[in-house]
Design brief:
- The protein is an all-alpha fold and about 80 residues long.
- Helix content is about 55%, strand content about 0%.
């Protein structure tokens, strides 16, 4: 795997994991301020979610990299 394809795989994994992590711990406020969406989270904690996403995506990318490098799954014609 070249560095560019490795980067593309990482970015795709990162975005998929982000969309899985975003709903964690979301609680809407009891009384939202006027003009605010009632479903908006009270404390989104987005930086924590980015850190968790990066950690999970790095582990998953490492697993994908190992599988691709070991030729367990070949993406090249034989």
């Amino acid at each position: 795997m070249s560095w560019f394809s490795g980067l593309i795989v990482y970015v795709i994994i990162w975005w998929l994991v982000l969309f899985m992590v975003l709903p964690w711990g979301v609680n809407p406020p009891e009384n939202p301020a006027p003009g605010h969406a009632p479903s908006a989270p009270a404390r989104p904690r987005i930086l924590l979610k980015f850190a968790v996403t990066t950690a999970i995506a790095t582990v998953l990318w490492g697993i994908a990299f190992a599988i691709i490098q070991s030729d367990l799954i070949s993406f090249r014609p034989t």
